[in-house]
Amino acid sequence: MALGAASEPITAPLARRLAWVTAARLGLLSLLLGLLGLLNFRAPLAWETFTIQTALVTLAVAFAVTALYAALLRSGRHMQRLVVLQLVVDPMLWTVIVYLSGGPSSGATSLYGLSCVTGAMLTGFRGAALAFGTGVVCFCLLLAGLWSGVIPPPPDQPFYVYHAQSDEWLYAGIVHLLAMFVVTVLAGSLAERLRVTGGQLALAEERADHAERLAALGRVAAALAHEIRNPLGSISGSIQLLRVNSALSREDQRLCAIIVREASRLNDLVTDMMNLARPQRPMLACVDAAATAREVVELAGQSGRAVSDVFVHYEGSERALITADSAQLRQLIWNLVRNAVQASSAGSDVTVTVSTDPLRGDAELCVRDQGVGLTEEAKERIFDAFFTTRAQGTGVGLAVVKRIADDHGFTIAVESESGHGATFTVGLGPLAEMPVGTPVVREERRTLFPNRA
Q1: What is the C-alpha to C-alpha distance for residues 398 and 377, in angstroms, rounded to an integer?
Q2: DSSP per-residue string spanning 319-345
Q3: By residue range, what is the domain housing residue 395?
């Protein structure tokens, strides 16, 4: 027999919801059995009567079916089939109770609605509709059987209860079916709303946890930036002065170049952590994305592996005016190019493309590499903070890219197959029609309850 557990959210895993339903079913059956015992204590029942014996057999079958449900649930397999089995079998058991307690005039017909609520709780509107359909079929078959005489009334029940006028049967049947329909619609709609709201709540909780982690990172990054950048600046300055000394041998020059490169990498890491932990509101203006991309490509070609074994080049439009924060757009492109270079094997190319579509009136940035590619799992998490596929990676650079894209309203996607490189595509939004550098005021969305944070 079905029973909805109001305290269990519709967004909980299906196995957990089934466990709640099974436990509630056991509780209800135990309660019904206890009521029979209480009635017998107050006034001894005629246990040999048809109604009492059928009720006990029905309860025994219900306990056996519940034990079967529990066994299937424990196996952890075929959960969807178990839901269908419950929503089909339970209304049949309810029909026996309705038959024993007065047929069309029985108040136990409300228990069909309980199955509809349970179906809504388990699988949403589909489950409620399945329970409703099964209940309607069972109830209508019971009415037709009693009306035609195919199903005789219980011999120990009053004759007049099961032999009402046709209009009374019709009225009772319509009322019960209408009540079942209303319960199904309400329960199904509520279940769908809870599912959507629960998903939004889970997303909000995830964002809150993410914000909390970033706040903690911000405090650590601020302290690290102060402690690292000062000695890092001294190291970089000293090495630059040392490199101009003509007395250095070729090996000493090579070692100095390594120090400069690693110091630059450490400075990039500190910068990424600061950008991720303490995001700044974009100062929007008209920016030439194509010119910015070419500048980043030129700069990338003069540092790191791009100097030696990875070729970075630009393709695409000569001009692409968009609305963005110039510094943050440069950071976004730089991080994508740096990630592509780090993922590339020796001798491969990294292609940066900015294209415009006059028909749609928008611009798009693509950064394509020929590296090892990404698995499906990696593509799902590639923009998560601190997730990385490289042994020496930090998982910060692409998280900064995602944060900048979100702040600007850009779309970002990645296409990749393991072993076949990756392509990062950023939708840069509509093209702008104003001189480069013209500031743009972002329109604020006004709501009934403004954010007071």
Answers
A1: 16
A2: --EEEE-HHHHHHHHHHHHHHHHHHPP
A3: 282-430
Strand 321-324 to 411-416 pairing: unpaired
Q: 3-state class of 96 per DSSP?
A: helix
Pair (42, 186) in one structural domain: yes
Please tell me the pTM assigned to this model: 0.47
Residue 156 lies in a domain: yes
Q: Tens digits of per-residue pLDDT, 291-345?
A: 999 999 888 877 655 556 788 999 888 999 999 988 889 989 998 998 888 888 8
Alpha carbon separation from 101 to 59, 97, 158, 352 (Å, rounded): 14, 6, 11, 77
Strand partners, 431: 322
Q: Euclidean distance between the first and final Cα of the chain, in Å?
A: 49
User: Left (φ > 0), alpha (ψ -120 to 50) or beta: where does 320 sit?
Assistant: beta
Single-letter residue type at 276: L
Q: Do 300 and 272 share a domain, yes or no?
A: no
CB atoms within 10 A of CB 2: 25
Q: Chain centroid to CA 250: how far?
A: 56
Give the 3-state secondary structure of 188-242.
Answer: HHHHHHHHHHHHHHHHHHHHHHHHHHHHHHHHHHHHHHHHHHHHHHHHHHHHHHH
- What are the Cα distances from residue 166, in Å, to 38, 104, 123, 141, 404? 36, 11, 37, 16, 72
State how many domains the chain has: 2
Q: Residue 308, Cβ neighbours under 10 Å: how many?
A: 7
Which residue, of 278, 308, 325, is where some domain finishes? 278
- Any residues with CB less than 8 A from the CB of 281 and at least 6 apart, and which? 407
> How far is residue 145 from each of residues 134, 137, 139, 141, 359, measured CA to CA in Å?
16, 12, 10, 6, 68
The 10s digit of each residue's pLDDT in 338-351 is: 888 888 887 788 99
